[in-house]
From TrEMBL:
This is Dihydroorotate dehydrogenase (quinone). GO terms for molecular function: dihydroorotate dehydrogenase (quinone) activity. The gene is pyrD. Catalyzes the conversion of dihydroorotate to orotate with quinone as electron acceptor. It is found in: Cell membrane; Membrane. It is a peripheral membrane protein. HAMAP family: DHO_dh_type2. It comes from Sphingobacterium wenxiniae.
Length: 341
């Protein structure tokens, strides 16, 4: 089915196509029997797929990465496509429009995307209100990916992460600290050792004041050097956060085959060009840390084999986004069935 409609969607601007697909999915789910139909097609329910990671029970290890549902608008709709968990965001304390359009580009020859969205979202309070109104999570785990507003200076960034943490705390199952997007000026500077430790330690201190604790993860860039990855291992162990998401988009353009005008667009690359590097980062972190913390693998997963490669490298769970766009909703069930084999 997806192979029939994909050419139509790919004639549209990527952002327009995204809104048409998600809007169409929402309308379809309102039809009597549609939810059950989607679940019968795309969900793979088998206790062998269950995973317990950082104290949470996942019905399967395949999640939807942050960026697809920035404002927690489509959680119930996407749940019917078989995901074991969904990560919303990146959410910032205050609403912001993001960067000027166009800001997303398909590199079809490379099966990739370039995006410079710039944390466009409706703000933490809006996301929290939507999460509060979810009627049936169906055992779905929800993550909250949080960042800082563009206008917030880096020396005050910790306050933005605190605001998002407090706003979403009652409604998400885990948090992801995003300091690795290349599309907010200066954000990646927060990956440096001291500012990063300040943010993570502050959130951990806040976490310990709550009636329960939420796992806090760190999302890192694929462009870090080995010495920087060594710092990440040390920081995770020192701050005792729950784990790492590896990786965000890359600023590298190495090996891309698409038209130069597209390749040279500013932004982060996701999709197949990231497959190898993200797996290398997962393996490095896993081996260097002696598997002392969980890793969620994301980047260039377009098949069950890609997902298995990341799990074999040391990931406990995986997430998809660009592969989901190129391969369609059957990708989730394909991965799950591949794991069962």
């Amino acid at each position: 089915m997806y192979t029939l409609v994909k050419p139509l969607f790919f004639t549209m601007n990527p952002e327009t196509a995204h809104h048409n697909v998600t809007g169409g999915l929402r309308r379809f789910n309102k039809i009597w029997g549609a939810k059950s139909l989607l679940r019968s097609i795309y969900s793979v329910d088998d206790p062998r797929l269950e995973r317990e990671v950082f104290g949470l029970k996942f019905k399967n290890p395949v999640g939807l990465a942050a960026g697809f549902d920035k404002n927690a608008e489509y959680i119930e709709d996407m749940a019917n496509l078989g995901f074991g968990f969904i990560e919303i965001g990146t959410v910032t304390p205050r609403p912001q429009p993001g960067n000027d359009k166009p800001r997303m580009f398909r590199l079809v020859k490379d099966e990739a995307l370039i995006n410079r969205m710039g944390f466009n979202n409706q703000g933490a309070e809006v996301a929290a209100a939507r999460l509060k109104n979810i009627k049936d999570k169906k055992g779905l785990i929800i993550g909250g990916n949080i960042g800082k507003n563009k206008v917030t200076p880096n020396e005050e960034a910790v306050n933005d992460y605190i605001a998002c943490f407090n706003a979403l705390f009652e409604y998400v199952d885990y948090f992801v600290v995003n300091v690795s997007s290349p599309n907010t000026p200066g954000l990646r500077d927060l990956q440096e050792k001291e500012p990063l430790k300040k943010i993570l330690n502050t959130l951990q201190d806040l976490n310990h004041t709550k009636h329960i604790q939420r796992p806090i993860l760190l999302k890192i860039a694929p462009d870090l050097t080995d010495s920087q990855l060594d710092d990440i291992v040390e920081i995770v162990q020192e701050t005792q956060i729950a784990g790492v998401i590896a990786t965000n988009t890359t600023i590298s353009r190495e090996g891309l085959q698409s038209d130069a005008a597209l390749v040279n667009e500013m932004g982060g690359v996701s999709g197949k060009p990231l497959t190898k590097r993200s797996t290398e980062v997962i393996r490095y972190l896993s081996e260097k840390s002696n598997r002392s913390f969980p890793i969620i693998g994301v980047g260039g997963i377009h098949s069950a084999a890609d997902a298995l490669e990341k799990l074999d490298a040391g990931a406990s769970l995986v997430q998809v986004y660009t592969g989901f766009i190129y391969e369609g909703p059957a990708l989730v069930s394909q991965i799950c069935k591949g794991l069962l084999k």
